[in-house]
Amino acid sequence: MPYIVTTVRLPREMLNEIDEIADKLGKDRSAVLREALREGLRELKIRMALDLYRRGLISFSRVSEITGLGYWEILEEAKRRGVILRYCEEEFS
Questions:
Q1: Could you tell me the pTM of the whole model?
Q2: Structural domain boundaries of the chain?
């Protein structure tokens, strides 16, 4: 996968934390930042999709599409985050 260079402004304290983690993991700063962004984006997508679901704006299957998670993974995330699932009558027929 080709990488594109971008610039981001970070407070010195945050950069120090990143460097400490990189040192402990034996990785370079860029690798740690990519991993942190990947995990952060995953979390943001889950949070956003479940919030939209909670507000009745999207279906459970759409949560799966947005997050890229399977049914059981979404159920676990919803449970962990206190999201109450909505069921329609057809699902009980």
A1: 0.81
A2: 12-92
